[in-house]
Design brief:
The chain is an alpha/beta fold. It has eight helices and 14 strands.
Length: about 375
């Protein structure tokens, strides 16, 4: 636009110059007679139209070009790829309370396209669920393209949480009865009910007297595991054998009461010597069972009624009463409800105890424990 205006102004300037020059040359020649200039009329004016040159858009010089052989060829692009992914349910660090068994929380696996590979995952490693410590499990998978992934989970087996022990009032008695239930147990339950006293029954599972276990539990007594078969050689062969015997009795208890128990008494007590066929097994079992959240109870007063020693009911009563006098804080009394004389001694024990300010309670997880010194 500016260029067009310049052209127009230049043309007007040239016209003006031409007009002035024309007037100058048309004057009288030298020596010629001067005559007045004729008067300019409308017809004498000649219109001059100046046409500007056509406008042009600004243009840039062409960009330099490379020879075809020098132009780089782009690399072909590939679809994104990657190794398979394994996701561990509950993460790579897992804390688990010690128990008889361990159950893997699970895992998922997929290739980079999102196709499931979970059923191809292989797991290596072992967890001993009843032994506290750290174990490693390795999870591996390979996809259809041959790409593989491995992840590791660390499983920490830790002691189970247990309630704190609560010390009872002085003169608390825990009557405990092993090896039942049997026909005498019914009579024993009647006596306990008469005196509103509570006791604990460490039962043998293979006797299958779930009716008596159920009654004892319903009347407020505690039920604990003793054994299923009471065969020392079989029970203490190894940890696995002990666990199998223990869990069989647990199932009988659950059938009768609707729940498992957390209290038990080792067959022969924790200080038994019958287990010496398996060196060190009692040392291991006492720790393992506590780590799994069970409490075991020995005794500090014995009725002396085991082994068919022939004590009368009166003699058994005297032995128990003398023992209670030595334990003014609390006493855990060992008796066997499979012996009639021991069952018939209970009424005299209860009567004497209540007359002398003793309270008869059932054991639970908060009760003070009595442990003998382990001999194996």
């Amino acid at each position: 636009m500016k260029r067009s205006i310049c052209w127009i102004l230049a043309a007007l300037f040239l016209l003006a110059v031409a007009a002035c020059g024309s007037n100058a040359t048309e004057g009288p020649e030298t020596g010629a007679a001067h005559s007045p200039a004729p008067k300019e009329t409308q017809d004498d004016v000649v219109a001059v139209v100046v046409t500007p040159p056509p406008t042009q858009e600004a243009t840039l010089p062409p960009a330099p070009t490379l020879p075809p052989e020098l132009i780089p060829t782009p690399e072909p692009t590939e679809a994104p790829v990657g190794d398979p992914i394994i996701t561990l349910v509950e993460g790579e660090e897992l804390n688990v309370a010690a128990d008889f068994t361990f159950s893997d929380p699970g895992y998922f696996a997929a290739d980079y396209r999102g196709n499931s590979l979970t059923d191809r995952v292989t797991v290596k490693g072992e967890v001993v669920p009843y032994l506290t410590g750290t174990y490693e499990l390795s999870y591996s998978v390979k996809d259809d393209d041959g790409r593989s992934t491995t992840v590791v989970r660390r499983v920490h087996i830790v002691p189970a949480e247990m309630p704190e022990i609560v010390m009872p009032p002085e003169k608390t008695v825990y009557l405990t009865f092993d090896d039942g239930p049997c026909g005498y147990t019914e009579e024993l339950l009647d006596v306990l009910k008469k005196y509103n006293a509570k006791a604990t029954f460490f039962v043998i599972g293979n006797k299958r007297r779930t009716d008596l276990i159920k009654r004892a539990y319903a009347e407020g007594h505690s039920i604990g595991v003793h054994t299923y078969c009471h065969e020392y050689k079989k029970i203490y062969k190894n940890e696995k054998a002990f666990f199998e015997d223990f869990q069989k009795t647990q199932e009988v208890i659950k059938e009768a009461t609707g729940s498992y128990t957390r209290i038990f008494r080792f067959p022969g007590g924790s200080a038994n010597t019958a287990s010496r066929r398996s060196k060190g097994i009692m040392t291991r079992l006492t720790k393992i069972m506590e780590d799994m959240g069970y409490r075991y109870f020995d005794w500090n007063v014995s009725a002396g009624d085991s082994g068919g020693n022939g004590y009368t009911a009166s003699q058994i009563k005297s032995r128990v009463v003398n023992g209670l006098k030595k334990h003014s804080d609390y006493a855990v009394v060992l008796q066997h409800d499979i012996h009639l004389n021991s069952v018939r001694a209970v009424e005299g024990i209860l009567k004497w105890g209540q007359e002398n300010g003793y309270t008869f309670l059932a054991l639970d997880l908060t009760s003070p424990v009595v442990h003998s010194k382990v001999q194996n």
